[in-house]
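This section describes the prediction task in plain terms. A model, or a person checking by hand, is given the sequence of a single protein chain and must write out its three-dimensional structure as a string of tokens. No templates, partner chains or ligands are provided. The sample shown here is typical of the held-out split.
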Amino acid sequence: MHRQCLERLAILTTRQFCYKPVKRPNFLREQPTGKSSSKRPAGETTRPLDTNNAVDLTKHLQTKILATGPISVAEYMREVLTNPLSGYYMNRDVFGKEGDFVTSPEISQIFGELVAIWILSEWQKLGSPPFQLVELGPGRGTLMRDVIKVLSKFKLSTGFSIHMVEISPHLSKIQAQQLCYNFDDCDSNVDIYYRKGETASGTKIFWYSRLEDVPRNFSVVMAHEFFDALPIHKFQLDNGMWKEVLIDVAEQTGTDFRLVLSKNQTPLSKIYSPVVGETRTSVEYSLEADRLIGLMAERFESDGGIGLIMDYGHFGEKSDTFRAFKKHALHDPLKSPGTADLTADVDFRQIKNIAEKNNQVVCFGPVEQGIFLDRMQGKARLEALLRNALPESQETIKSAYDMLTHPNQMGSRFKFFSMFPAVLKDHLAKFPVNGFH
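The expected answer:
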């Protein structure tokens, strides 16, 4: 009885804080931007949503909040996207026309081909050292497939290895089926990777749950629509102090949760250090992005390598971009967690600040996707495809490239950002980075 009283007292004590509701833009009234819909290759299907798991996740989060108090947006995103049992990415294919969004590599093969040409040209400028190709969050494996195809054309299929960082068992299996001639699951107690395979051309592929587990060698790291899905904290300036926007159980019907402002500073809002010159009063901050960028910078300095980040984002001018996508339309991110993708625009100014703060790397960009692809001779590649295409396919090919590059579609919203070891700064001044100049 005494224990029950103490537990009840702990709950009441936790819930007595005065949280102020936070109003934010209604994204549902806006046109969907960023992640776009498009045609999907024939024969691909989406695994049906397990609605029982989605309901369980809502109850799980509500119970947790009632017991311990409001949680950070980062904790909410982490549970919704990667909960082992019912996380959005963990148990089904979410890409393509029948999913909730489609990515650039699936819209046109030109995207992946130009990324491969960029990798090849920058690698050759550095002396063509032995390398490994690393992708963070490979999705369905479409980008890697197109990159491998181009590198194989240049007789590099056995000159490098591939390392995929993927937390979702379901998506990693789709990737393996897409890329491998054969593959096997591995014992994580014996091997640091949990799956390995080989392409038809003989390239070795390995799968890991963390970037830290990837071998330390000269690496070319790709991250396409990866950083936008990393958990973010939301901070708001209140009377000169950064306070955290938290997620609480909803008090009204129509949604499951609500945003509230912490009464006092949270541990993370206390240590949060904005970029010099910050003028925003509301920011989104990803501690996980800082950690990964710091790890990449340290590895590039010590082991060599280059990084290419492709995502939608801004350079420190936006403040509230946290939203959800479901069936190619905007969705309330606080309703039915686990049934929709949660995302936030990447703050490339913060990434650049973290990457360069210890003088380990030098960064280029961000540049708009349309500009990057055009500088990489995307129009020339488009013309070549059209010359060899059937007349009935030409309009589809042209509209796909237009979707990638037009400023009113994906051309300006999506950005490219690159990282190189700082020791190459003078070298890159003489031989500018393709696509960024």
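For orientation: DSSP finds 14 helices and 19 strands in the chain.
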